[in-house]
Write a structure and sequence with these properties.
Structural class: mainly alpha
Order of helices and strands: HHHHHHHHHH
Bound molecules: fe (ii) ion
Strand content: under 5%
Distance between the termini: 57 Å
CATH topology of the largest domain: Cyclin A, domain 1
Number of strands: 0
Largest sheet: none
């Protein structure tokens, strides 16, 4: 596979597209790039000897949200990426990539091959930690909501949301990474809450 050319295709289809009202244009492109790195790193950590599918993991991650905005985006995404990539990889690789895109949201509904499970987990992980805060601030800014709205979310919904998403992860290593990210968010939000009330961190 020609990664440079395929990455260009990803940029052309998502680089400037506004596919989600609460997120900045191009989000799906940059999110896909990050998911590819996270999924590959996760593969090294949990399946160190199984590097044979890294190419489909990378390309599947790049395109997993190409259908975003046309729901169900995983089904439309599978069609779109097949169209974009059919002349740029073998039938076997294309089948695996389409599988990743088409099944990335259908977590824990059946036994998935490792290349799907890794992208499913990486997709979740990219929405937590500092990225979670970025998404939350964008969400509030888009709705012109005050900082208090954000703090209300962290006080009333965040813990339940995190506990629910955590059950969807496939690998214990993903849970470990997820928990570290969650801890960072809780520490950050505690400081945000204090500073939003005019307190000083030194007190
Ligand atoms: Fe998605
Ligand atoms: Fe995603």
């Amino acid at each position: 596979m020609d990664f440079g050319l395929i990455q260009d295709k990803a940029w052309q289809s998502m680089g400037k597209r506004h596919s989600h009202p609460d997120r900045e244009p191009g989000y799906a492109y940059y999110h896909g790039q990050r998911v590819a790195k996270i999924a590959t790193r996760l593969r090294e950590l949990v399946l160190p000897a199984q590097s044979g599918d890294d190419d489909v993991i990378v390309v599947g991650s790049w395109f997993h949200d190409v259908g975003k905005g046309i729901e169900p985006h995983w089904e439309y995404g599978a069609l779109i990426c097949r169209e974009i990539l059919q002349d740029h990889c073998t039938n076997e690789k294309l089948k695996q990539i389409v599988e990743i895109v088409g099944e990335h949201t259908l977590r824990k509904t059946k036994e998935y091959p490792h290349y799907v499970q890794l992208v499913q987990d990486a997709d979740i992980l990219d929405h937590f930690g500092s990225q979670e805060i970025w998404l939350n601030f964008w969400h509030c800014a888009y709705r012109r909501e005050a900082l208090e709205h954000s703090l209300e979310f962290y006080r009333e919904s965040y813990v339940e949301h995190v506990a629910q998403v955590r059950t969807l992860l496939n690998y214990p290593k993903s849970v470990e990474i997820f928990d570290e990210k969650d801890q960072f968010v809780r520490t950050f939000i505690e400081r945000l809450r204090r500073e939003a009330e005019g307190e000083l961190a030194i007190d």
